[in-house]
Each structure stands twice: as structure tokens, then as C-alpha cells.
Specification:
With 477 residues, the chain is mainly α. It has one domain (2-417). Helices cover 86% and strands 0% of the residues. The protein contains 19 helices and no strands. The chain has helices at 2-34, 37-51, 54-58, 61-71, 76-104, 109-137, 141-163, 166-171, 174-200, 209-243, 249-284, 290-313, 315-322, 327-338, 341-357, 360-413, 419-440, 446-463, 469-476. The longest helix has 54 residues, at 360-413. It is globular and about 65 Å long. 45% of the residues are buried. The chain crosses the membrane at residues 5-25, 40-62, 83-104, 110-131, 143-164, 176-198, 219-244, 264-283, 295-314, 334-355, 362-383, 389-409, 421-439, 445-467.
Length: 477
């Protein structure tokens, strides 16, 4: 099972890193540089505004479906035929509520039009998430991996045509970017649906009231968790525009620092894609989850330490590479937000374990505490420190909620954390401090220093025995 997890995770992460790295450095950066900061700040705020209402779109259906089908594959056709009509109904309700909320929030006619098309993108994305939950529940992880990067691949192709043509780049605006996203997400949605239909056979769509009521009742805790997490993950930029009257400048700077961290978080999210059905099956079969948890945690720790050290030491260089506006301010934000990567990655391991176990009450209590903490700290910090206050709020909230999830999972599953292992972690961190500080003083091109540092970080993980050659051989054999 450990080999199965690592092999599929490696394929999924590699594919996503290749595509999304090109997307971040080549396309998303190009869009942000091609349009003015205020326009991108407006887009960023509206996009996060649509996320706040995603509870209506999904209602916990994707996670509930993933866990249920992984444990009971024979229910797939029955659930598929009833869930699709339900999601269509929820999509209409979502569109109406978000548009009315945007109008009541004082959005201009242009902003409402952009809000409409971003809502369409969210609806399509919700269907893609549902179809992907079917693929992962059936352990079709490689197929899911391809679907996970299809929209970004199409975006790269189309946006490249506009951004790398001098004449077209001059007329490129943020609205074009929104329309292209709608198109690529539609193609991805249709592709995912066709693959699911091939796997499931002919499906008869029918609004089954008893089953719909059951799905809503069972999916409600997952929906509530999604809403609460969306609030403390996405409220920062919305509250920046609400509390500061600067034309969206702070939100744009925050978006610059947040973009790379958010993209890195997508890699951590891939852990949960594989872990949720895997944990669900193992818990039902009463198989110990500790070996998979240990492997996932070690991988997350290595990945997080590398990302955080590179981000802190080379924040200015990275922001200079990506943007041509607000470099210093964006670097300040990025240094704070980079530390969020570790607690968010922890959540994708231990939060996923608790989700697979059905421990939704505990997760919702923790998430509610995180939402309240996020709102209170933003109200205190944003007026005083602007975008830096929002970043600090995010770090505090993410860290405390991750710690609570981890502590609860350790107690519930009786996981062990030995003194020897803690010493290994401390030694690993100290070695990395020495590596990054020492190499930062060497007079060579900074990108070479980063690559050398990453290689030495990997070697330090083996030197401290967080990983061993025997483990690698067992996974590859």
C-alpha cells in the first residue's frame, strides 16, 4: 500500500509541477504583468468572493462521494444518476445567490459581469471535482492526474498566443483572461464527464428524492467544513478591500505574494486526492494507517522545509523573477505567507485522515474556531499593518488549526511520536539552516544556489534518517 501511494503520488505531483510551474512562471505572471495592478486586484477579490459561496455548489458531495464509493464501489451508478441533477439545481441556486450578494456588496456593472463568468467557471470546476472524486474513488489515479492539469494545459496554450504576441498583448485585458478560463474549464468538464461515463456505463439521470435527502444529510458536515475553511482561507483579500480604501492596491500586492504560495499549496492538495480514498478503504478494512501517515508526513516535512527556506532566503529574487510591480512589498508578504505552507500541508494529511474516518464534528469545531480567529485578527491587524496584517493573520490561523487537527488525529488513531524522531526533525532543521545561510553567501547565480540547496536538503533528510535507502528500495521494488 505504501508503494502504491508513493508511486501514484510521484506521478501526480510530477505532472502537476511540470504544468503548473510553467503556468505560474510563464502565464499567470504574464497576465499579472500585462494588466494594471488595480484590475488584477479586482479580479483576485472577485475570484475569492466566489469561493466563499462554494458550499452551495458542492454541499460536501465530492468528499462524501469519494469516501462512500471508495468503501462501496457498487453504489457508483446509483449515486451518479442522482447526484448530477442535484448539482445542476445547486448550481442555479449558487449563481443567483452570488450575483445578488455581489450587487448588494456594491459591485459595479463591470464587476458583476466578471462575477457572473467566474461563477460559471466555479460551477464547471465543481462538476470537474465531482467527476474526479469518482475517478479517485475507483483508484484511477493516473487518469485523475491528467484531468487535474488539463485546464491549466489548455490555458497555457491559449494565453501564450495572446501574451507572447506583441500586438495582441497590448490589447489583452483581465476580461479576456476570465473568458479563456471559462472555455478551458468547460472542455475539462466535458472530458472528465465522458471518461466517467465510459467507466460507469450508461447512466439514467433521475431526481431521486429519498437518495437526494440522504446525500444532503450525509454531505452537510462536509459542506459546512468547506464553508468554514473557505472563510479562513479566502477572507483575507476580501477584508482588505472592505477595510482599506486604496483602490485595490493592497489586495493586488497581497495577490502577488499569495500566488506562488497558493500554487505550492496545490501540490500539497494532491496528497489529499490520493490519501482520502486510500485512508477510507484502509479504515473500513481495519488496516493500520500509521505507515501511510508516517510516509506522507515525512514527504510533507521535506517539501515544506525546502519551500520555506527557499522562499524566505530568496523572496526578493523570486518576486523580481515573477513581477515588475511592487517587488519589495510583495516580497515582504511572500516571506510571511511562505510559512503557511507547512500547516496547510499538515491539514492535507491529518485533516484528510479525520475526514476519511468521518470525524466531521471535530473538524467543523476546529474550522469554526479558525474562522472566528481569522475574522477577529483581520479586524485588528489589517487597519494597522495593511496586507502584512492579513498575511500574519493567515499564518496564525493556519498554524493553530493544523496543530489542533494533528493533535486530535494522534489521539484518535493512537499514533506515536517518539523522542528519537523529534531529535531527527530538530537536527534536520538545523542542518538546513546551515545549508541555506552558508550557500546564500556564495557569489554565484542565485538560481544555482537554490538548486544546490535543494539537493543538500534532500541529502540531509537521508543523513538524519528521516528517509532511508531501504525505504526507497522497498517502495521501488
Amino acid at each position: 500500500m505504501k508503494k502504491f501511494f508513493v508511486a501514484n503520488l510521484f506521478f501526480l505531483v510530477t505532472l502537476n509541477i511540470l504544468i503548473k510551474s510553467f503556468w505560474i512562471l510563464g502565464i499567470d505572471r504574464g497576465v499579472q504583468n500585462a494588466v494594471d495592478a488595480e484590475s488584477y486586484g479586482m479580479y483576485f477579490v472577485i475570484l475569492n468572493f466566489t469561493y466563499l459561496f462554494n458550499i452551495i455548489l458542492d454541499f460536501g458531495i465530492a468528499n462524501y462521494n469519494n469516501r462512500t464509493i471508495a468503501q462501496n464501489p457498487h453504489l457508483l451508478r446509483k449515486y451518479f444518476g442522482s447526484i448530477v441533477p442535484l448539482k445542476m439545481l445547486l448550481s442555479v441556486v449558487y449563481m443567483l445567490i452570488v450575483l445578488v450578494a455581489g450587487w448588494l456588496n456594491g459591485y459595479s456593472s463591470h464587476m458583476v459581469i466578471m462575477l457572473f463568468w467566474l461563477c460559471v467557471t466555479q460551477v464547471l470546476s465543481s462538476f470537474v471535482s465531482y467527476f474526479r472524486s469518482i475517478l479517485t474513488a475507483l483508484f484511477l489515479f493516473k487518469t485523475d492526474s491528467v484531468i487535474s492539469v488539463l485546464d491549466r494545459s489548455l490555458l497555457i496554450l491559449i494565453c501564450s498566443f495572446f501574451l507572447w504576441n506583441a500586438r495582441l498583448r497590448e490589447s489583452f485585458c483581465i476580461d479576456y483572461f476570465v473568458y479563456i478560463q471559462v472555455l478551458t474549464m468547460f472542455v475539462t468538464c466535458m472530458t472528465a464527464m465522458i471518461i466517467c461515463l465510459v467507466k460507469t456505463g450508461r447512466i439514467r439521470l433521475k431526481f431521486n428524492k429519498p437518495l437526494t435527502v440522504l446525500i444532503i444529510r450525509e454531505g452537510w458536515p462536509y459542506a459546512m467544513l468547506g464553508l468554514l475553511m473557505a472563510c479562513y482561507n479566502r477572507l483575507d483579500s476580501v477584508m482588505l478591500t472592505a477595510l482599506l480604501d486604496d483602490g485595490g492596491r493592497s489586495a493586488a500586492i497581497y495577490a502577488s505574494g499569495f500566488r506562488l504560495v497558493d500554487s505550492a499549496n496545490m501540490v500539497s492538495l494532491l496528497f489529499s486526492v490520493i490519501l482520502l480514498p486510500l485512508f477510507s478503504r484502509m479504515i473500513k478494512e481495519k488496516t493500520s494507517v500509521e505507515p501511510i501517515v508516517s510516509t506522507a508526513w515525512n514527504l510533507v516535512l521535506l517539501m515544506s522545509v525546502c519551500f520555506i527556506f527557499v522562499s524566505v532566503v530568496y523572496s526578493t529574487e523570486l518576486m523580481t523573477l515573477m513581477y515588475n510591480k511592487h517587488i519589495s512589498e510583495s516580497a515582504d508578504i511572500y516571506r510571511i505567507l511562505a510559512f503557511c505552507f507547512l500547516p496547510i500541508s499538515v491539514t492535507y494529511v491529518f485533516g484528510t485522515l479525520l475526514t476519511a474516518n468521518g470525524s466531521m464534528k471535530a473538524l467543523n469545531i476546529i474550522a469554526f474556531a479558525g474562522m472566528v480567529m481569522n475574522i477577529v485578527l483581520n479586524l485588528l491587524f489589517i487597519p494597522k499593518w495593511q496586507q502584512n496584517g492579513a498575511a500574519l493573520t493567515s499564518l496564525v490561523t493556519q498554524s493553530l488549526t493544523a496543530f489542533m487537527q494533528m493533535a486530535y488525529a494522534f489521539r484518535l488513531f493512537k499514533l506515536r511520536l517518539t523522542r528519537t524522531y523529534l531529535c531527527k526533525i530538530v537536527l534536520f532543521l538545523l542542518l538546513n539552516v546551515i545549508i541555506y545561510v552558508a550557500l546564500h553567501k556564495i557569489d554565484i547565480l542565485w538560481i544555482f544556489r537554490v538548486l544546490i540547496s535543494l539537493m543538500l536538503s534532500l541529502l540531509s533528510a537521508f543523513a538524519t534518517k528521516l528517509f532511508s535507502l531501504r525505504d526507497v528500495k522497498q517502495m521501488l521494488s
